[in-house]
Amino acid sequence: MKNSAKTTNKGLVIKVVSAAPKLFIITSIMAILHGISWGVVTVCQQKFFDKVSLLTIKASTLLDVLLMFVILASAYILCQVFNGAGNYVLEMMTKKMDGVLSYELHQKIAKLSAIDFEYTNRLDTINKAEEGKKGAVQLVSTLQGLFCFYLPYFIFMGYYLFTLKPILLLTLLLIFIPTMLTQIIRSKIFSKIETKSASQRRKVEYYESCIINKRYYKETRLLGAFYFFKKKFLEAQNYLLHMQYTASVKTNLIDLGMKIVTMLGYITILCILLDAALKSQLSIGAFIAIFSSLTEMYAFMEEIVSFHFGEVTKNIGKVKNYSSFASENGRHDLKSINLQYNKITLSNVSFSYPNTDKIVLEDINLEIRKGETLAIVGENGSGKTTLVKLIIGLYAPISGEILIDENKLSYISRESIFRRVSAVFQNFQRYNMTLKENISISQTTKESKVSILDSVCSKSGIEKEQWGLNKGYETMLGKEFGGVDLSGGQWQRI
């Protein structure tokens, strides 16, 4: 199981990197050069101060000092250039990766059956996968920084310190041991909190939409339910924040202990430096360069410990959820058929929704032939809409068969089914676009000829002039962008 997990994580990293390979290579090179350049600055500082100290005893010239100053300034400027350019390319890389992974994730979600969205656990899985996708990009960029910037810098500085006084390197290495132990604990804490918070996060988002979303706000205010949903929102949000707060308290206490260890190491190195300088084991330039670079080294180390390792451990749990969802196998045996819809046959079809024992439809037998107009009449909750969803392939029956032109619906690709199907449900979408775009939205790649549009409008009862659509098919519909608003019945016909 452990080897399998490692393989999955490795494959995920490769997947994220392959979303923007060129930018990843450029960013990595810039990060390596940036890390090494900080070490070069430290060496140049030593050389510069050594030249200054030699000048005081006339063992060096002013020209040597000025030349070394120019070299030091150039190294520092180059370091900042690598930093700025690297950050710019890094931003482009993460946006490109996020875009590619979002597209692939949404393609995966689009292939799910409509019935999947009736399962609470599937909705939680999708929510966690969305969060995990963001975490995957952050994880790769964080690992890239660790291996391409911090690692080259500390290797360079470690070798530099070892050549001056080996014990300095040993002290730095010992500081990382408690850090790694701490992050293992952090990883487990945030993995658990991510698993628990997905469902709660969806509740927060839903109650928020009931308060501010245009789809809900009219009825919410008409019913006087604003404060009811506000209370629900606050309760769900406070519970979510409480879970996050509990995890943060635990991890911050761990961070506190880790920083105490780091501070002890910092004081130890200062004592070793002072002792070496008093015994003339270090030059004045080396002492000043190491002393001034200690702040940078510990600042970088704190970034690794408090931020980057923290980001890695927080994202590990999210990334596992994304990886698990992305690796799910879908149906590959569905046929692509040019359906004519000469006949639709339902044979002993039954259906029930998830999480309930109630049978919505039971042993339905029905035949619909081409050219027929069929009205299905029944009480509220009798299953009329559900039956339509079964016929058009949104849901699959729990028993029985649905045939289209003698082809089993369960073996036909949804693209083949939806190509010849349209539906207007009770809650339908009003697209704030032109009349032509609303009519041709299901076939955007096909040319929208006026003759075809006229035929569609005639069959659907769309009367452009009487409805005040003065710009014809280019008339913008809906108030969102200053277009013409229509009645519910007019929208249904469109």
Question: What's this entry about, in short?
Answer:
With 494 residues, this protein is mainly alpha-helical. The protein has helices at 2-17, 21-56, 62-110, 120-164, 166-212, 214-222, 226-278, 284-326, 384-391, 414-418, 435-439, 450-460, 488-493, and strands at 343-351, 361-369, 399-404, 407-408.
- How many strand units? 4
Our Rg estimate from Cα atoms comes to 33 Å
The shape, in one word, is: elongated
Strand order of the largest sheet: 2-1-3-4
pLDDT average, as an integer?
A: 83
End-to-end distance, in Å?
A: 54 Å
β content, as a range?
5-15%
Which sequence of SSEs, written as H and E, runs from N to C? HHHHHHHHEEHEEHHHH
Total of DSSP H or I helical runs spanning 4+ residues:
13
Please describe the biggest sheet, giving its number of strands, its sense, and whether it closes into a barrel: 4 strands, antiparallel
State the helicity in percent bands.
55-70%
In quaternary terms, these chains amount to: single chain
Q: Indicate the structural class.
A: mainly alpha
Instruction: Outline the low-pLDDT stretches.
Output: 1-7
Description:
The chain is mainly alpha-helical and 494 residues long. 67% of the residues lie in helices and 5% in strands. A 4-stranded antiparallel β-sheet has the order 2-1-3-4, with helices on one face. Helix 2 (21-56) packs parallel to helix 4 (120-164), helix 3 runs antiparallel to helix 4 and helix 5 packs across helix 8. The longest helix has 53 residues, at 226-278.
